[in-house]
Amino acid sequence: MKYMEPIQEIDPAIGAHGMWKAHLRDAIENGTSEFQPNVVATDNNCAFGKWLHGDISPELKNSKTYPTIVQYHATFHKEAAKILQLALIGEKDEAEKKMSALSEFAAISSSLTSTMVEWKKSLE
User: Fold this and answer.
1) 105 assigned to some structural domain
2) pLDDT tens for residues 83-108?
3) 99 domain-assigned
């Protein structure tokens, strides 16, 4: 089986997950989104999640960083879904609070990104 190279998956994933801040801010502002919270909540619908749970090589899956990435990625999606749900029901203030610099979403987003960067560096 041919596996995707980590750099082909990690770099785009960092950018894509960073874009979620913009998607969520738009949803908070407009009260609408092309995304559904129940879909966002699952961590295997995005390209990175599909790779992480499927097309990843056994060597990477057995790396010591893999379980941390999986955990951070799943938590990121759950937090994004909570914010999106609040935005879609018009709870703007609560959604904004869950996106603040001291929020769980900000912390997990930062942890996910920094761990993906470290993981990529360890593989180069």
Assistant:
1) yes
2) 999 999 999 999 999 999 999 999 99
3) yes
